[in-house]
């Protein structure tokens, strides 16, 4: 024997090429076991025989499992048909129908009472008051004015007066300002003569200077011209 052949026979075999790995591989996972078998150093006769035997076992087991599944499928289909038949033959009961009586709601008639509208016209405005009836004044004035004029004439016969002084005197007697003014203006009076008469009366009572007498006449209501004229008539 050659040395190389002896070395090949005595060389250690890997674990996956031993029968302890190939056998379980063929039973547990046939393809894996078949690969391990053909890659091992076993003789070709063993490889072919074991492969054929394993293939037959696989075919037989497949046929056996298919035959056992058929009755189960048939039983399942029979059960489905029976359940379908029982459902079809079961009497169908409809739920009772409840008949509701018709509801008739009677609404009272709506009556709307509209109050009558009364339009009250506003009362007409009152008529304007009638103007007071006044009697037209007499040609010589009213009675009060005539009395005021007579009283003014009486005062002038007693003493001298200026125009404003005579009106004030009549008002002091109780006549109104209008009546007193009407009475004085209705008389034809020379006020320069009244100023001269008043200056003479003052000089008959007491002595005056010219300017003092002029001032006194102005105080009595005469104008400056009337007072100067009256004092001039006295010789001052």
Automatic annotation (TrEMBL):
Keyword Disulfide bond applies: no
Annotated TM spans: 20-38, 45-64
Residue ranges of domain Putative host cell surface-exposed lipoprotein Ltp-like HTH region in the record: 145-187, 190-232
Membrane keyword on record: yes
Organism expressing this protein natively: freshwater metagenome
Pfam families to which the protein is assigned, alphabetical: Lipoprotein_Ltp
Low complexity composition bias: residue spans: 83-120
Protein name, per record: Unannotated protein
InterPro entries named among the record's database cross-references: Ltp-like_HTH, WH-like_DNA-bd_sf
Sequence segments annotated as region (Disordered): 68-149
Gene3D superfamilies from the UniProt entry: Winged helix-like DNA-binding domain superfamily/Winged helix DNA-binding domain (1.10.10.10)
Start-end of Pro residues biased regions: 121-135
Annotated keywords: Membrane, Transmembrane, Transmembrane helix
